[in-house]
């Protein structure tokens, strides 16, 4: 496996990339996805990495630099058929090391908190208030 930070958006703006990354976005259309990728690509604190194996792109992780030593996962996704094989953990650790980050944060929900626990993050539940009600969310932290 190989992971690299990308600056050119060509592949990220394809339907193949959308099919992978839409898993970590809430009910997003292809147009909304491409608009978001274009938006964050213009912000210097965001770093977009693609994970590939045997020449095939299989995962995407986007980190936001919070300081020289910390970053937050804005989104992470692996092709559905390849999940639960350690690819997500590899992407978290490798992208963080690439940025010389020592601590990675994330916020997640019940659906994906297991991934963060399995990857070694410490987990702290909290209640987030939304306009349509409250939801249990999880603050996650990993030391690299």
> pLDDT under 50 segments (min length 5)?
none
The geometry reads as globular
Topology as a string of helices (H) and strands (E): EHHEEEHEHEE
Biggest sheet record:
7 strands, mixed
How many structural domains are formed by the residues?
1
How much of the sequence lies in strands comes to 35-45%
Radius of gyration: 15 Å
- Beta strand count: 7
Percent helix: 25-40%
Q: Briefly note the CATH topology name.
A: Aminopeptidase
Q: What's the level 1 CATH class?
A: Alpha Beta
**Judging by the overall fold, what is the CATH architecture?**
3-Layer(aba) Sandwich
What is the CATH superfamily label?
Gcn5-related N-acetyltransferase (GNAT)
Termini separation: 19 Å
In a few lines, what is going on in this structure?
With 144 residues, this protein is of the alpha+beta class. It has helices at 15-21, 30-41, 87-98, 113-119; strands at 2-5, 46-53, 56-65, 70-78, 103-108, 122-130, 133-143.
Description:
With 144 residues, the protein is an alpha+beta fold. It has helices at residues 15-21, 30-41, 87-98, 113-119, and strands at residues 2-5, 46-53, 56-65, 70-78, 103-108, 122-130, 133-143. The protein has a single domain (2-143), classed as 3-Layer(aba) Sandwich (Aminopeptidase). The protein is 26% helix and 40% strand. It has a seven-stranded mixed beta sheet with strand order 1-2-3-4-5-7-6. It is globular and about 40 Å long. The mean pLDDT is 96.
